[in-house]
Amino acid sequence: MITVAIIGFGNVGKHLYEAFSISENCEVVAVFSRNQARFQNLTEIPIVPKLDELPEAAVTIIAVADDAIAEVSETLPERNGLVVHTSGNTPIKAIADTHRRGVFYPLQSFSKRPVIFKEIPICLEAEQKDDYEVLASLASKLSDRVFNIDSTTRAQLHLAAVFANNFVNHLYQVSEKLLSKNDLDFSLLQPLIFETAQRLSEMSPSEAQTGPAIRGDEKTIKKQLHLLEGTAFQSLYQQLTESIAQTHGKKL
Known about the structure:
Number of helices: 9
Distance between the termini: 61 Å
Shape: elongated
Low-confidence stretches: none
Largest sheet: 7 strands, mixed
Strand content: 5-15%
CATH topology of the largest domain: Rossmann fold
Number of strands: 7
CATH class of the largest domain: Alpha Beta
Helix content: 40-55%
Structural class: alpha/beta
Order of helices and strands: EHEEHEEEHEHHHHHH
Mean pLDDT: 93
CATH architecture of the largest domain: 3-Layer(aba) Sandwich
Oligomer: single chain
Strand order of the largest sheet: 2-1-3-4-5-6-7
Protein backbone atom coordinates (compact mmCIF):
# COMPACT_ATOMS: atom_id res chain seq x y z
CA MET A 1 0.00 0.00 0.00
CA ILE A 2 1.42 3.37 -1.05
CA THR A 3 0.12 6.31 0.95
CA VAL A 4 -0.29 9.69 -0.73
CA ALA A 5 -0.87 13.22 0.53
CA ILE A 6 -1.89 15.93 -1.92
CA ILE A 7 -1.23 19.65 -1.56
CA GLY A 8 -3.44 21.67 -3.88
CA PHE A 9 -6.91 20.89 -5.16
CA GLY A 10 -7.10 22.64 -8.51
CA ASN A 11 -7.60 20.67 -11.70
CA VAL A 12 -4.41 18.60 -11.36
CA GLY A 13 -4.79 17.88 -7.65
CA LYS A 14 -8.46 16.99 -7.97
CA HIS A 15 -7.88 14.61 -10.88
CA LEU A 16 -5.00 12.93 -9.05
CA TYR A 17 -7.11 12.54 -5.91
CA GLU A 18 -9.95 10.96 -7.88
CA ALA A 19 -7.59 8.61 -9.73
CA PHE A 20 -5.67 7.49 -6.63
CA SER A 21 -8.90 7.03 -4.67
CA ILE A 22 -10.04 4.25 -6.97
CA SER A 23 -6.61 2.65 -7.44
CA GLU A 24 -5.69 -0.61 -5.75
CA ASN A 25 -2.96 -0.62 -3.10
CA CYS A 26 -3.00 3.15 -2.87
CA GLU A 27 -4.49 5.38 -0.17
CA VAL A 28 -4.88 9.15 -0.12
CA VAL A 29 -4.37 9.95 3.56
CA ALA A 30 -4.88 13.72 3.33
CA VAL A 31 -5.57 16.64 1.01
CA PHE A 32 -4.71 20.26 1.76
CA SER A 33 -5.66 23.41 -0.13
CA ARG A 34 -5.33 27.04 0.89
CA ASN A 35 -8.71 27.54 -0.72
CA GLN A 36 -10.91 25.51 1.60
CA ALA A 37 -13.98 26.49 -0.44
CA ARG A 38 -12.87 23.92 -3.02
CA PHE A 39 -13.96 21.20 -0.59
CA GLN A 40 -17.53 22.41 -0.20
CA ASN A 41 -19.92 19.43 -0.14
CA LEU A 42 -17.00 16.98 -0.58
CA THR A 43 -17.30 15.27 2.78
CA GLU A 44 -15.59 12.03 1.72
CA ILE A 45 -12.20 13.72 1.20
CA PRO A 46 -9.65 13.48 4.08
CA ILE A 47 -9.13 17.24 4.38
CA VAL A 48 -6.61 18.89 6.69
CA PRO A 49 -7.12 22.60 7.49
CA LYS A 50 -3.43 23.49 7.91
CA LEU A 51 -0.32 22.49 6.01
CA ASP A 52 1.60 21.65 9.18
CA GLU A 53 -1.14 19.15 10.07
CA LEU A 54 -0.52 17.07 6.94
CA PRO A 55 0.15 13.49 8.06
CA GLU A 56 3.12 11.44 6.91
CA ALA A 57 2.79 9.71 3.55
CA ALA A 58 5.05 7.69 1.29
CA VAL A 59 4.60 10.40 -1.36
CA THR A 60 3.49 13.99 -0.82
CA ILE A 61 2.41 15.60 -4.09
CA ILE A 62 2.63 19.38 -4.46
CA ALA A 63 0.03 20.16 -7.13
CA VAL A 64 0.11 23.96 -7.10
CA ALA A 65 1.07 26.75 -9.52
CA ASP A 66 4.71 26.63 -10.62
CA ASP A 67 5.59 29.86 -8.83
CA ALA A 68 4.29 28.49 -5.52
CA ILE A 69 6.18 25.16 -5.51
CA ALA A 70 9.33 26.43 -3.78
CA GLU A 71 7.39 28.36 -1.14
CA VAL A 72 5.11 25.42 -0.33
CA SER A 73 8.03 22.99 -0.09
CA GLU A 74 9.91 25.36 2.23
CA THR A 75 6.85 25.77 4.44
CA LEU A 76 6.19 22.04 4.57
CA PRO A 77 7.71 20.45 7.69
CA GLU A 78 10.45 17.90 7.02
CA ARG A 79 8.95 14.53 6.12
CA ASN A 80 10.06 10.90 6.01
CA GLY A 81 8.52 10.26 2.60
CA LEU A 82 9.09 11.70 -0.85
CA VAL A 83 7.99 15.23 -1.76
CA VAL A 84 7.26 15.72 -5.47
CA HIS A 85 5.76 18.38 -7.70
CA THR A 86 3.63 17.98 -10.83
CA SER A 87 5.14 20.68 -13.05
CA GLY A 88 6.58 20.09 -16.49
CA ASN A 89 8.59 23.31 -16.56
CA THR A 90 9.94 23.40 -13.00
CA PRO A 91 13.20 21.63 -12.07
CA ILE A 92 13.33 19.08 -9.30
CA LYS A 93 15.59 21.39 -7.28
CA ALA A 94 12.75 23.89 -6.85
CA ILE A 95 11.70 21.67 -3.95
CA ALA A 96 13.53 22.51 -0.73
CA ASP A 97 16.56 20.27 -0.18
CA THR A 98 15.32 19.37 3.30
CA HIS A 99 13.09 16.84 1.52
CA ARG A 100 13.66 13.71 -0.53
CA ARG A 101 12.76 15.27 -3.87
CA GLY A 102 11.02 14.05 -6.98
CA VAL A 103 8.74 14.93 -9.90
CA PHE A 104 5.42 13.34 -10.84
CA TYR A 105 4.36 15.09 -14.06
CA PRO A 106 1.23 13.89 -15.88
CA LEU A 107 1.55 15.19 -19.44
CA GLN A 108 -1.99 16.39 -19.98
CA SER A 109 -4.00 19.61 -20.01
CA PHE A 110 -6.43 19.16 -17.14
CA SER A 111 -9.83 20.83 -16.92
CA LYS A 112 -13.18 19.95 -15.37
CA ARG A 113 -13.60 17.19 -17.96
CA PRO A 114 -12.89 13.58 -16.92
CA VAL A 115 -9.65 12.03 -18.13
CA ILE A 116 -8.45 8.50 -18.80
CA PHE A 117 -5.21 8.24 -16.85
CA LYS A 118 -4.23 4.94 -18.46
CA GLU A 119 -3.47 6.86 -21.66
CA ILE A 120 -1.62 9.79 -20.06
CA PRO A 121 2.20 9.76 -20.05
CA ILE A 122 3.52 10.27 -16.52
CA CYS A 123 7.05 11.66 -16.42
CA LEU A 124 9.05 10.89 -13.29
CA GLU A 125 12.28 12.09 -11.74
CA ALA A 126 13.96 11.31 -8.43
CA GLU A 127 17.40 11.87 -6.94
CA GLN A 128 17.71 8.36 -5.55
CA LYS A 129 17.09 5.02 -7.26
CA ASP A 130 14.87 3.73 -4.44
CA ASP A 131 12.77 6.89 -4.59
CA TYR A 132 12.32 6.52 -8.33
CA GLU A 133 11.09 2.96 -7.84
CA VAL A 134 8.46 4.21 -5.38
CA LEU A 135 7.28 6.81 -7.90
CA ALA A 136 7.27 4.28 -10.74
CA SER A 137 5.16 1.90 -8.66
CA LEU A 138 2.73 4.71 -7.84
CA ALA A 139 2.54 5.99 -11.43
CA SER A 140 1.93 2.50 -12.80
CA LYS A 141 -1.25 2.33 -10.72
CA LEU A 142 -2.63 5.13 -12.89
CA SER A 143 -1.00 4.84 -16.30
CA ASP A 144 0.49 2.33 -18.71
CA ARG A 145 2.89 5.02 -19.95
CA VAL A 146 5.54 5.85 -17.34
CA PHE A 147 8.81 7.56 -18.28
CA ASN A 148 12.03 8.52 -16.49
CA ILE A 149 12.76 12.08 -17.69
CA ASP A 150 15.15 14.53 -16.03
CA SER A 151 14.45 18.23 -15.45
CA THR A 152 16.37 19.49 -18.50
CA THR A 153 14.65 17.11 -20.90
CA ARG A 154 11.27 17.62 -19.25
CA ALA A 155 11.53 21.38 -19.86
CA GLN A 156 11.97 20.66 -23.58
CA LEU A 157 9.00 18.29 -23.47
CA HIS A 158 6.89 20.97 -21.81
CA LEU A 159 7.96 23.48 -24.47
CA ALA A 160 6.84 21.07 -27.20
CA ALA A 161 3.53 20.63 -25.36
CA VAL A 162 2.99 24.41 -25.36
CA PHE A 163 3.32 24.42 -29.14
CA ALA A 164 1.14 21.32 -29.60
CA ASN A 165 -1.59 22.35 -27.16
CA ASN A 166 -1.62 25.99 -26.05
CA PHE A 167 -0.60 27.57 -29.35
CA VAL A 168 -2.86 25.30 -31.38
CA ASN A 169 -5.81 26.16 -29.13
CA HIS A 170 -5.04 29.85 -29.63
CA LEU A 171 -5.28 29.29 -33.38
CA TYR A 172 -8.69 27.73 -32.79
CA GLN A 173 -9.65 30.99 -31.06
CA VAL A 174 -8.42 32.97 -34.07
CA SER A 175 -10.49 30.74 -36.35
CA GLU A 176 -13.54 31.22 -34.15
CA LYS A 177 -13.21 35.01 -34.33
CA LEU A 178 -12.87 34.95 -38.11
CA LEU A 179 -15.95 32.76 -38.39
CA SER A 180 -18.06 34.80 -35.98
CA LYS A 181 -17.42 37.96 -38.00
CA ASN A 182 -19.18 36.21 -40.85
CA ASP A 183 -21.98 34.72 -38.75
CA LEU A 184 -20.52 31.23 -39.03
CA ASP A 185 -20.29 28.71 -36.20
CA PHE A 186 -17.02 27.16 -35.03
CA SER A 187 -18.64 23.71 -35.16
CA LEU A 188 -18.17 23.83 -38.94
CA LEU A 189 -14.45 23.25 -38.35
CA GLN A 190 -14.77 20.42 -35.84
CA PRO A 191 -14.77 17.52 -38.35
CA LEU A 192 -11.62 19.01 -39.90
CA ILE A 193 -9.98 19.38 -36.48
CA PHE A 194 -10.86 15.83 -35.43
CA GLU A 195 -9.61 14.36 -38.71
CA THR A 196 -6.31 16.22 -38.42
CA ALA A 197 -5.78 15.00 -34.86
CA GLN A 198 -6.69 11.39 -35.70
CA ARG A 199 -4.37 11.41 -38.70
CA LEU A 200 -1.41 11.98 -36.37
CA SER A 201 -1.86 8.49 -34.93
CA GLU A 202 -1.00 7.10 -38.36
CA MET A 203 1.64 9.50 -39.71
CA SER A 204 4.12 12.13 -38.59
CA PRO A 205 3.15 15.82 -38.40
CA SER A 206 5.46 16.47 -41.35
CA GLU A 207 3.62 13.90 -43.46
CA ALA A 208 0.23 15.21 -42.34
CA GLN A 209 0.90 18.84 -43.29
CA THR A 210 -1.42 20.23 -45.96
CA GLY A 211 -2.45 23.70 -47.11
CA PRO A 212 -1.34 26.52 -49.43
CA ALA A 213 2.09 27.03 -47.82
CA ILE A 214 3.31 23.47 -48.41
CA ARG A 215 1.83 23.53 -51.93
CA GLY A 216 3.56 26.83 -52.71
CA ASP A 217 0.16 28.26 -53.63
CA GLU A 218 1.09 31.95 -53.75
CA LYS A 219 -2.22 33.02 -55.28
CA THR A 220 -4.23 31.67 -52.32
CA ILE A 221 -1.73 33.04 -49.81
CA LYS A 222 -1.91 36.57 -51.27
CA LYS A 223 -5.71 36.45 -51.31
CA GLN A 224 -5.91 35.36 -47.68
CA LEU A 225 -3.36 37.96 -46.56
CA HIS A 226 -5.55 40.56 -48.27
CA LEU A 227 -8.59 39.28 -46.35
CA LEU A 228 -6.65 39.81 -43.11
CA GLU A 229 -5.61 43.40 -43.84
CA GLY A 230 -6.09 45.68 -40.86
CA THR A 231 -6.15 42.79 -38.38
CA ALA A 232 -3.57 41.51 -35.90
CA PHE A 233 -3.88 38.11 -37.55
CA GLN A 234 -2.20 39.10 -40.82
CA SER A 235 1.34 38.98 -39.39
CA LEU A 236 0.53 35.71 -37.62
CA TYR A 237 -0.64 34.20 -40.90
CA GLN A 238 2.52 35.45 -42.61
CA GLN A 239 4.83 34.02 -39.94
CA LEU A 240 3.15 30.62 -39.92
CA THR A 241 3.12 30.46 -43.71
CA GLU A 242 6.83 31.24 -43.88
CA SER A 243 7.59 28.70 -41.15
CA ILE A 244 5.71 25.93 -42.98
CA ALA A 245 7.37 26.80 -46.28
CA GLN A 246 10.87 26.86 -44.75
CA THR A 247 10.29 23.61 -42.86
CA HIS A 248 9.32 21.84 -46.08
CA GLY A 249 11.90 23.52 -48.31
CA LYS A 250 9.41 25.62 -50.27
CA LYS A 251 10.10 29.07 -51.69
CA LEU A 252 7.34 31.68 -51.66
